Amino acid sequence: METDQKYRIAPPGFTQEQWNTFNEDGIIFIEDAISDEDIDIYKDAIDRVAESNPKYTQGGYLGMENIVERDPVFTELIDHDRHVGYAYDLFGELLKLHQSQFFLRPPGGKQYNQWHPDGARALPYGVFSPNLPLQIKIGYWLTDLLHERMGNLVVLPGSHRQQYMNGYDTHKSLPGELIVCPRKGTMTVMHSSIWHRVEMNDSDVVRYNIFVAYCPSWVTPADRFHSSKDWLETLNREQRIIMRSYSHAYHNAKPPASDFPLFLERDSGSEKDDEMYLDHVQLHRRKRQTMHERITSINNLN
Ligand SMILES: O=C(O)CCC(=O)C(=O)O
Ligand SMILES: [Fe+2]
Fold first, then answer.
1. Distance 155 CA to ligand 2 centre (A)
2. What is the total count of domains within the chain?
3. Which ligand 1 atom is at minimum distance from the Cα of 153?
4. Neighbour-count burial of 118, counting CB atoms closer than 10 A to its CB (0-12 exposed, 13-18 middle, 19+ buried)
5. Phi, psi angles (nearest 5°) of residue 38
6. Residue 34 sits in which domain range?
7. What is the pLDDT of residues 170-227, one digit of tens each?
8. Which ligand lies nearest the alpha carbon of 179?
9. Which terminus of the chain, N or C, has less C-beta within 10 A?
10. Does some domain include residue 2?
11. Residues 115-133 pLDDT 10s
């Protein structure tokens, strides 16, 4: 949302119902989030970028990373109003783009993957953060995947709370699994600790999809060390901040003053939380609340 102010109000994020489902299941589905026109724009961009990749063969499997830097259509996803508010609800003023990817999963390929959570393995994020994710993945589903065996994502709802799982590193079907069969235009928001795998594609359609993952800026990015300086100069303020391409390493934990506020708080339009600090404490030195903390403190008052 644009205002006549210098800063943007945080775009919409979780409704209370979506937040409850996200916590319970580890994933939410938002149908008809992406218009047919935008689906075509994203698919064309995937085709364009795929064709520029020397490793790509027509009709073959392809997964590409750091796509935001590869095409202006993908660049817009960094801070897109359709989804960035969900990431802002979780990671607030320290929001960072963790990874951006697309996948082309054609029929007949062996390119399915095995049960795994995303993120750290030897010391999963859940050790330190058993409830809140330290990574979320937004999925844009650009192909109708109305049946099983179409290269579907398969998740085990509720499994974001468990750090061990017998199916790990296997591809077998497990009781309780959900084979995701989205209509094109569906957006998913996934807790990255949820256990998931990818189904085979025996259909006659190529699965097109995009993932953009977010984390707090002090978690390492997954698909780059730094972004190119020339490209960063083409970005708007929020996009540049969300890429967090700092040359001073500690800025990942303590970004410079000019990177605050990233967004203005959705309801109050304020750039700070009220009554927490004496006036002399500068904005970039202040702890800021996330949506989760805000609703927890409201619920505790009631
Ligand atoms: O393509 C998918 O549906 C999931 C891919 C995946 O598990 C990953 O990129 O971590
Ligand atoms: Fe994964």
1. 10
2. 1
3. 3
4. buried
5. -70, -35
6. 16-301
7. 999 999 999 999 999 999 999 999 999 999 999 999 999 999 999 999 999 999 999 9
8. 1
9. C
10. no
11. 999 999 999 999 999 999 9
